[in-house]
């Protein structure tokens, strides 16, 4: 049984863990929520990089994980290159906003992107956007919106605040559009945002296709580990270890709600 480490600033990475469980049900997962330092999206690049480095070292040393999934768009954007330099012998998989899949399915070429400020303002995101625009062979309009506070509202389970912020940032996407073509695709560029997908879909309307990154990340992780995929819903029995640098109770509650699993969560000092 392979052991896969997964970390995020909080509970948002559970959306990636959900996809990993579907793709590789017979693995052991060690999920760490850096709750004591969440959210990452509005922290400095240096702070995020330092947290990612410390967490990565602890997961590798204490839990012997065979691969690491950085289940946070902000941490991927600001830290994954340094993590790979420090651990060149070890597979590290990151997440990034699904701009390429969005470009492939969008009919109008008008694509909204909701992400944290740390992601939207990162050099890695700018390179990704430029590459996708260059390779698409057509005109694309990526309308990117930094969503301050949204990940935190989802993290706290504050539905009124989540709904208010979703409406606010979708309105901002429409208000700043630089094309008359209707937006038909919306990229959820933070792993927290899939847990607000129902709200976002109701606000955006049925003609807008929402895209998240969990499934592609899970397939990539399976590929780098050389593991077969699930052959049926009954395949394998996963083992899940939940850890938090903050209060572990919200993590356990979120896992029960979004993963349908009753797993106790422990505290870890990092």
TrEMBL record:
Active site: 72 (proton donor/acceptor), 190 (proton donor/acceptor)
Biological or metabolic pathway of the protein: Cell wall biogenesis; peptidoglycan biosynthesis
GO molecular function annotations of the record: glutamate racemase activity
PROSITE patterns named among the record's database cross-references: ASP_GLU_RACEMASE_1
Residues at which substrate binds: 8-9, 40-41, 73-74, 191-192
Reaction catalysed by this enzyme: L-glutamate = D-glutamate
InterPro entries given in the database record: Asp/Glu/hydantoin_racemase, Asp/Glu_race, Asp/Glu_racemase_AS_1, Glu_race
Keywords of this entry: Cell shape, Cell wall biogenesis/degradation, Isomerase, Peptidoglycan synthesis
An individual GO BP term: regulation of cell shape
Entry's EC annotation: 5.1.1.3
Enzyme class: isomerase
A Pfam family reported for this protein in Swiss-Prot or TrEMBL: Asp_Glu_race
SUPFAM superfamilies per the UniProt record, alphabetical: Aspartate/glutamate racemase (SSF53681)
Organism domain of life: Bacteria
Functional description taken from the UniProt entry: Provides the (R)-glutamate required for cell wall biosynthesis.
PANTHER family from the UniProt entry: GLUTAMATE RACEMASE
Record family assignment: Belongs to the aspartate/glutamate racemases family.
The name this protein goes by in its record: Glutamate racemase
Taxonomic source organism: Hydrogenophaga taeniospiralis CCUG 15921
Gene (name only): murI
């Amino acid at each position: 049984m392979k052991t896969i480490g997964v970390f995020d600033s909080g509970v948002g990475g559970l959306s990636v863990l959900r996809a990993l469980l579907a793709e590789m049900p017979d693995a052991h997962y060690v999920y760490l929520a850096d709750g004591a330092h969440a959210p990452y999206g509005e922290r400095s690049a240096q702070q995020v990089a330092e947290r990612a480095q410390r967490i990565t070292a602890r997961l590798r040393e204490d839990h012997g994980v065979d691969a690491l999934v950085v289940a946070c768009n902000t941490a991927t954007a600001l830290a994954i290159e340094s993590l790979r330099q420090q651990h060149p012998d070890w597979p590290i998989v990151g997440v990034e906003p699904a701009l390429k899949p969005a470009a492939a399915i969008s009919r109008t070429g008008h694509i909204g992107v909701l992400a944290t400020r740390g992601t939207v303002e990162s050099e890695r995101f700018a390179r990704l956007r430029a590459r996708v625009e260059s390779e698409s062979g057509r005109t694309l309009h990526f309308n990117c919106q930094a969503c301050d506070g949204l990940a935190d509202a989802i993290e706290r389970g504050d539905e009124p605040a989540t709904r208010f912020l979703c409406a606010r940032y979708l309105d901002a996407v429409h208000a700043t559009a630089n094309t008359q073509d209707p937006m038909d695709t919306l990229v959820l560029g933070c792993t927290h945002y899939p847990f607000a997908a129902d709200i976002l879909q109701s606000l955006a309307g049925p003609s807008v296709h929402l895209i998240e990154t969990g499934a592609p990340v899970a397939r990539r992780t399976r590929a780098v580990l050389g593991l077969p995929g699930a052959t049926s819903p009954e395949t394998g029995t996963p083992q899940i270890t939940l850890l938090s640098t903050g209060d572990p109770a919200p993590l356990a509650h979120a896992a029960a709600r979004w993963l349908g699993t009753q797993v106790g969560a422990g505290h870890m000092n990092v």
